Amino acid sequence: MKLYGKQNAAEKLSLFMSSGRMPHAIMFTGDEGAGKRTMADYAAMLMLCTRGQSTPCMTCNECGRIEAHIHPDVVYPLQKMTGGKYNVDDMVRFITSCNTLPNDSPFRVAIFENADTMNLSCQNALLKFIEEPLRFNRFVFTVSDKGRILETIFSRVAEIKIAPAEIKECTAALTERGIAPDEAEKLSRTFGGNIGKCLTAHENEGALTLLKISEKIALAAANNREYDCMAGLCKAKNREELGVILKNLTDIFGNAAAVRAGGRPYGCFSSETEEISRLLSLKKASVLYDTALGMLREIDFNPNVQLAAAACCAKMFDAAENAEK
């Protein structure tokens, strides 16, 4: 297992381990595709490795089984949920099953992937489980949107942020996976070192198409062209595509705000960032970012994608207009 761009996170875990203060609950936060799942598996190795101390050996039977996702004491609750989504009934059953001792190890490590997709009922059911843990249970969460996590849960975990890799590291990771060096570097720059998004785009041309659509929508918003914005949003064929577009818009407007504030782009790097940041004030870029993020969180509540697209367009232009007052 290679930790491209995740050395800082690995060092924090090693410090916890060497000091004898490994938290019983860890939450990896960061953009989708940044490598939170990789770090979750690494944390499990660190807790269960039979040879390592402050770092896992990566060679023992425990590490090998964790990397292969076949360790009986490293469990992924999401995979046990009906329909592949968190639900409170399955969550309660899972929590009850964790009252038994682990199979082969001193600890059972539960890795809650995409924990921000849990509804409030699931999170409340989980709260007491992590608040008063049995000595042999450990918890790891991966979260892309911290705003969806209850504060009562967030206050009981140790947060470790996962940043995208540097362009050079991302290019190396992609090249190792068989992608031609020139394409690997182009993808790395386009997606700001986010290895997961680069791989998705390489395997699915639709991801790049949606990024281009998102750029046109952002430019339309920056130029106050509401019709063009609406036309772009309506190209989403379903809620999943609309969600991708809205996520891209948070990156684009977030990048524009960062540039306007004197910083540098982060995450998914739009080729239009410089022009968009020139057209938008810092306040307007920040408001559009907040609006796109809010709509992304609400997208599941609107079953009609065309109505959702229309609502998104209206909210963006209302927010932009109010930002200029």
Architecture of the largest domain, according to CATH?
Answer: 3-Layer(aba) Sandwich
Averaged pLDDT: 90
Order of adjacent strands in the largest pleated sheet: 2-3-4-1-5
**How many whole angstroms does the radius of gyration measure?**
21 Å
Regions with pLDDT < 50 over 5+ consecutive residues?
none
H/E topology pattern = HEHHEHEHEHEHHHHHHHHH
Structure, described:
- By secondary structure, the protein is an alpha/beta fold.
- The protein folds into 2 domains: 7-161, Rossmann fold, CATH 3.40.50; 204-323, Zinc Finger, Delta Prime, domain 3 (Up-down Bundle).
- It has 15 helices and 5 strands.
- It has helices spanning 7-18, 36-48, 61-67, 88-97, 120-131, 151-154, 167-176, 181-190, 195-203, 205-222, 226-233, 239-260, 273-279, 282-298, 305-323; strands at residues 25-29, 74-75, 108-112, 137-143, 158-161.
- A 5-stranded parallel beta sheet has the order 2-3-4-1-5, covered by helices on one side.
- Helix 5 (120-131) links the parallel strand 3 (108-112) and strand 4 (137-143).
- Helix 7 crosses helix 8.
- The longest helix is centred in the last third of the chain and has 22 residues, at 239-260.
- It is globular and about 60 Å long.
- The termini are far apart.
- The model has no long low-confidence stretch (mean pLDDT 90).
